[in-house]
Amino acid sequence: MRKPVIAGNWKMYKTIAESVETALALKPLVANANHCEVVIAPVFTALKTVADRLEGSNVRVSAQDCSTETEHGAHTGEVAADMLKDAGATYAIVGHSERRQFYCETDESVSRKTRAALAANLSVIVCVGEMLEQREAGDAEQVVSQQLRGGLGGLTATDLPRIIVAYEPVWAIGTGRTATPEQAQEMHAFIRRVFREEHSNEAAQDLRILYGGSVKPDNIAGLMSQEDIDGALVGGASLKADSFAAIVNYNR
Ligand code: PGA
Q1: Which of 4, 56, 204, 205 has its CA 20 to 30 A from that of 230?
Q2: For ligand 1, atom 6, which residue shows the shortest CA distance?
Q3: Strand 231-234 and strand 91-94: pairing?
Q4: Does 168 qualify as catalytic in the annotation?
Q5: pLDDT per residue over 78-128, tens digit each?
Q6: Where are the domains of the chain?
Q7: Which residues lie with the beta carbon below 6 Å from any ligand 1 atom?
């Protein structure tokens, strides 16, 4: 059985005080959510404070990115994966489409960041997903397959349990336009097939694949009812404790 993961990506929102306020409001609302792993990803500056305030709860903290570099050194502006771990992170999100689109993220940097995060003992949420033009041209599977093979090539069987894939069609992020549960399911099944080819049947069966893109309290149950959807990466609807809690506590 794959344990679902519901993760909130807070992007570049919330000061430290606002992050703590939302995290503390969320904590009791999801305290009984044993059916899934609950994760929130605040901005770097709020990570340590939020992680400290959530200690002993069932809510884990994720970084939104990490450096490709593992050696501490002259890399102005970068934060190494082990520093994120030191600040209380359990997960790191890598390869989010906003980083691919606006911050020069490539499959190669995704691969290096994934390895860096694994080396620091973090679980990694690796994001993949096609743009609208690519879907309309019939290239969605090819794009996603390339991102998976480029970003996750060369991982070993011991690395794989800490890899989580998030399928986020770029046209559904922040647009209010969700993929239908059937469209998402189709791509999730495809991702699992790629994993089977690249790794093993067992690794593919155990892989958690999250859907992301305009997930809301009213569409989560339909998405989660699909066989290959093992959770969600939530942006906008994770910023308020009550709406994120409603997603975590979806109708099962
Ligand atoms: P959204 O963002 O839920 O606001 O569409 C999802 C994401 O970017 O991870």
Answers
A1: 56
A2: 235
A3: unpaired
A4: yes
A5: 999 999 999 999 999 999 999 999 999 999 999 999 999 999 999 999 999
A6: 5-248
A7: 9, 168, 173-174, 212-215, 233-237
